[in-house]
Write a structure and sequence with these properties.
- With about 170 residues, the protein is an alpha/beta fold.
- The protein has two domains: about 45 residues, no CATH class; about 110 residues, 2,3-Dihydroxybiphenyl 1,2-Dioxygenase, domain 1 (Roll), CATH 3.10.180.
- It is built from five helices and eight strands.
- The strands form two sheets. A four-stranded mixed β-sheet has the order 1-4-3-2, with helices on one face.
- Strand 6 and strand 7 form a beta hairpin.
- The protein is elongated.
- It holds the Pfam family Glyoxalase_7.
- InterPro entries: Bleomycin-R (IPR000335), Glyas_Bleomycin-R_OHBP_Dase (IPR029068), Glyoxalase_8 (IPR045517), VOC_core (IPR037523).
- This is Bleomycin resistance protein.
Amino acid sequence: MHTLEQAKLMAKRLRAQLAASNHDISHSAALELVAQQLGYRDWNTASAMLPGEPQGIVFERSIPILRMFDEAKAREFYCDFLGFTIEFEHRFEADLPLYLGLDRAGLKLHLSEHHGDASPGATLFVPMRNITALRDELLGKRYNYGRPDIVQQDWGQELQVYDPFGNRIRFCQY
């Protein structure tokens, strides 16, 4: 879902991109094009229908930081077993601790070897959909250190995995 401010920014970018290739259009023409791309009849309709920016404090999402102690084991567990991809890796110098950004289907995690970033033994609660497919995928990998299964809880189906550093992830489908 786009906001009114995002639509205005899209029109501004469209106009700049067209101008860069010698296709000048007015700002109002760019707004009309964006409105049509978003499925509205015209800019007046779009500006009346699109939500404005939220007022007050807005939290986008949290990204947990988990402690790790062994880069190879972290990659084996989080990438090979759980299927995360690496978004970024950071070290201040080659022989200093690693800070790793991971992503899988919108779930973002950060892993850190830095002493002060996190304590081992954290638990993450991750609401999700299609928990059976995740369980089947994980069992199919025949991971030596865990074969998680779904447990029915009062609040939904839960599948728990434990990383090599004492952290636990509770995937839950309501």
